[in-house]
Amino acid sequence: MFVLKIGGSAGIDYDLIADDIARLTQEGQQMIVVHGGSALTNEVATALGHPPQFVTSVSGFSSRRTDRRTIEIFEMVYCGQMNKGLVEKLQARGVNAIGLSGLDGRLWEGKRKSVIKIVEKGRRRVIRNDYTGKVEKVNTALLNTLLLAGYLPLLTPPAISYESEAINVDGDRAAAATAIAMEADTLVILSNVPGLLKNFPDESSLIRHIPAQKLDTFMDVAQDRMKKKVMGAQEALAGGLKRIIFADGRVENPIQRALAGEGTVIEVSAGF
Amino acid sequence: MFVLKIGGSAGIDYDLIADDIARLTQEGQQMIVVHGGSALTNEVATALGHPPQFVTSVSGFSSRRTDRRTIEIFEMVYCGQMNKGLVEKLQARGVNAIGLSGLDGRLWEGKRKSVIKIVEKGRRRVIRNDYTGKVEKVNTALLNTLLLAGYLPLLTPPAISYESEAINVDGDRAAAATAIAMEADTLVILSNVPGLLKNFPDESSLIRHIPAQKLDTFMDVAQDRMKKKVMGAQEALAGGLKRIIFADGRVENPIQRALAGEGTVIEVSAGF
Predict the structure, then answer these.
(1) What is the helix (H) or strand (E) element at residue A256, kind and residue range?
(2) Which CATH superfamily is domain B2-54+66-109+135-267 in?
(3) Does chain A have fewer CB atoms within 10 Å around its N or its C terminus?
(4) Cα–Cα separations (whole angstroms), residue A24 to A6, A20, A27, A253
(5) pLDDT over threshold 80, residue A187
């Protein structure tokens, strides 16, 4: 069993990915799919007069400023258009997909950050009405029930807080939490780059292999959105996963290529 | 077991309805909930520059003109904001709700109308690129799996065509199909009126009781959106349901009141 994360950035080819999921499931491969929707959320939020804002945490990570109106727009895009569009693509290819958010059946539960500390124009600031958090509990019973009944679970943020509020969580890290909880052997993360690049955005500088125990030293190499993917990989390794692959979501057979070792393969080697 | 349909018109109080669902499920009452999202879809479609259009069929029913862009907006609102907003409200009240569309696991499958025949300014016209249809098959195995595991299924259009396209289906009739397939004893339909009104919109003209065998004669009384509710009730009766209740979704304890007989009760009487 493996977990597949499909990014939400521009350029990712969802038809090619759906083709590949169909091929793999026909071969009997079991998987859980997690997807994003960031680029489309930015478009819709702008069209609805509530343009996206991004903040940088004091630890240097960028994230979406998520007020209550943003959560609604986020749900429209992630749980509505993106999730149902992907379910439709998969059903059309004979894959019996079921789309769920982290709210449904408390699939992804976690703590809402009561305050977030950001840096704005070099100054520290505290934001209190943000709806973000981190997945701490995965409803594996629900996922196992669906898998056993022959469905492919297609999961998307938001998650649910312990106080039952919808919270924006990072999709890569939610996928890592899911892979750990389900004891998956591999986590494949498809985005609009071929993997971790030594000199971003030079795609020829792809780093092909990272031994698990050396991943920490690559955090500084990761730029922009790749930072959270590396963090997700660190969490996945800490949780017992043996292999994480960052690969290209713009090509044919993207999942099969990733599983065959194309992209950046982060692996626990035999001795560890 | 009963099926509850919550309308999508302005005025319906979703907090009061969620309170009542929580009370009933705490008492051990099992139910499946279906919801709409029409009013909010109109707002969002207008804000996104694709304002809603309604067409009147040659048989006199009004329905939403549903091109492919409308399906996307429809999914944003019904499956995104509305469905997840309601899941959140229910989870906050201790109800373990799972929101699904008719696409998920092919929950609601049916035929897409390849052409729709409409009347426009007194003239007949044919529309070919519409994505509408009717639920003909309900995935009862999936619903039973979720109910057995202790979840409350919260269902919403669109449905899925046999060719795996998302199709707009009427929520009242989808609820009726669900009630029939699940062999529910009662279908409760909450909207922003107290029930079927003899002189619409005069709320004091509520029709309190309709024997099942006389329902046909009330089709002419039904105005506007109530027409499809009456049609849903006819289909539910034809499918073996014993009781359909049209009731007010704007009041406290709306479901308990409906089940106690407030609203318009359409019933198969003892002799039939």
Answers:
(1) helix A254-259
(2) Acetylglutamate kinase-like (3.40.1160.10)
(3) C
(4) 15, 6, 5, 10
(5) yes
Distance in angstroms (rounded) separating the CA atoms of residues A173 and A198: 22
**Residue pLDDT, tens place only, B121-173:** 999 999 999 999 999 999 999 999 999 999 999 999 999 999 999 999 999 99
Q: Taking CA atoms, what residue in B is nearest to A159? A: B88
CA distance A225 to chain B (A): 25
CATH no. of A2-267:
3.40.1160.10
SS3 B160: strand
The verdict on a CB contact (< 8 Å) between A104 and B99 is yes
CB contact under 8 A, B105 and A83: no
CA distances from B186 to A57, A125, B266 (A): 53, 55, 10
ipTM (interface predicted TM):
0.96
Rounded CA-CA distance A184/A32 in Å is 9
Pairing mode of beta strands A62-64, A54-57: antiparallel
**pTM passes above 0.90:** yes
- Exposure class string for B179-191: b at 16+ Cβ within 10 A, else e: bbbbebebbbbbb
Q: Are B5 and B34 in contact (CB under 8 A)?
A: yes
Q: Once rounded to an integer, what is the mean pLDDT over residues B7-28? A: 97
The answer to whether the Cβ–Cβ distance between B96 and A106 falls below 8 Å is: yes
pLDDT tens-digit readout, A22-72: 999 999 999 999 999 999 999 999 999 999 999 998 888 888 999 999 999
Domain map (residue ranges) of chain A: 2-267
- Whether B88 and A164 lie within 8 Å, measured CB to CB: yes
CB distance B17 to B254 below 8 Å: yes
Nearest C-alpha neighbor of B95 from the set B14, B185, B183: B14
The dihedral formed by the CA atoms of A250, A256, A259 and A262, expressed in degrees to the nearest 10: -50
The shortest CB-CB distance from A77 to any of B49, B80, B105 is to B80
Provide the 3-class DSSP secondary structure of residue A84: helix
With CA atoms as reference, the chain A residue closest to B69 would be A81
- The verdict on a CB contact (< 8 Å) between B48 and A44 is yes
Within 13 Å of residue B86, how many CA atoms lie on the same side as its CB?
Answer: 32
Contacts of A168 (CB under 8 A, 6+ apart): A63, A64, A66, A70, A71, A74, A131, A132, A133, A157, A158
Helix and strand tally (H, E) in chain A?
8, 16
The arrangement of strands across the sheet holding A108-112 comes to A133-138, A108-112, A159-161, A166-167
Spatial distance between the Cα atoms of A119 and A252, rounded to a whole number of angstroms: 40
Listed residue (B102, B216, B92, B228) closest to B167, CA to CA? B102
Contact in structure between B62 and B109 (CB atoms under 8 Å): no
